[in-house]
Amino acid sequence: MYQEENRKQKFITMGEIMLRLTPPDCEKIRAADCFEARYGGSEANVALSLANLGIDSSYFTVVPDNSLGKSAIRMMKSNDVDCTPVIFSTSEETPTHRLGTYYLETGYGIRPSKVIYDRKHSAFDEYDFTKVDLEKLLDGYTWLHLSGITPALGERCRKMIMDCLKIAKKNGITVSFDGNFRSTLWSWEEAREFCTACLPYVDVLMGIEPYHLWKDENNYSAGDVKDDIPFQPDLEQQEVVFNAFVKRYPNLKCIARHVRYSPSCSENSLKAYLWYEGKTYESRKLTFNILDRVGGGDAFVSGVIYALMQKFTPEDTVNFGVASSAIKHTLHGDGNITDDVSLIRHVMQMNFDIKR
Q: Mean pLDDT lowest for which of 18-22, 61-65, 263-267, 270-274?
């Protein structure tokens, strides 16, 4: 499913990139007198991580044609992401002409992190995507990655995402999709309705929410298959859900999801499950201290995509994904800038010696 063995993978994703402002040293926002500036966004993080691992990775977004927009894209280019598809919008095209922003208050110990979004009327939000030739945009790519964040931004974005899914399906492009629910952008039911409609076009599913997976399609009152499993399931419980997804959507070739254990905001553990070719696999559990949690899920996604592209075994694929995410938690910024595959392999094997 991941294209012919001798064909080079060409990856593309699309979504909003934002300016991230963070008070240093775990300060509260209301007490801050300075902020550290970085750039990130779920899809941008995945593109950046894959590019650092040597994948031919492209990114489509819309940013204002001003210093902030140019700075955000310069950061992506500095991480070897091909930004040729990026649109630098004019003030006529996007009247508010701004880059979306979010503020991150980094947690510590028992105090959780906090995010405040300021992304409404950004250039990406205001742009008219009907002006984009999506067939041309996706031409020549072998892998398209999308997330549930972009369609949450509004009807224009939802139409673009659905059109891209249909084009990818028609042209034989492998599609990965991460539901990535954001309660500040849309309701749980809105997210479930739209993301469930995406499932017939998806090859690689990241996460198991937000989707309807009814026990009985003719009687919704019977509930959802996922209602019966805990937030931190065991292998058998997770396999029940994976099998229900594949039975309902036989187009799915792979499903992956990570499970987080949070004894505190400064120390977490991660493990993951992966369904592939009729069998469910469980990763090792990694425990680590947190420097910067944002982007950990995106690093897991990029790790799994990389491993699938490189035809790792299913066991190595799920462990590589968890190790990629764990390493991201030790790095400042939204993206996993690790460019050393052997380092990720050392972590997935729980080998923490100094590399000399």
A: 263-267
Q: What is the CA radius of gyration of the chain?
A: 20
State whether residue 337 is helix, strand or coil.
coil
**Separation CA 39–CA 334 (nearest Å):** 7
Residue 182: predicted pLDDT: 93
Query: Which residue is listed with tokens 């006529």?
Result: 92
pLDDT-based confidence at residue 177 (cuts at 50, 70, 90) = very high
CA distances from 184 to 125, 150, 181, 206, 207 (A): 15, 13, 9, 21, 19
Residues 132 and 160: beta-carbon distance below 8 Å = yes
For 218-251, what is each residue's pLDDT tens digit? 999 999 999 989 999 999 999 999 999 999 999 9
Q: Which long-range contacts (CB under 8 A, 24 or more apart) does 230-238 make?
A: 231/259, 232/259, 232/261, 233/259, 233/273, 235/273, 235/280, 235/282, 238/273, 238/280, 238/282
Helices within 172-295 (DSSP H only): 188-198, 235-248
- Residue 154 CB partners (closer than 8 Å, separation 6+): 125
* DSSP state letters, 283-316: PPPEEEE-S--TTHHHHHHHHHHHHHHTT--HHH
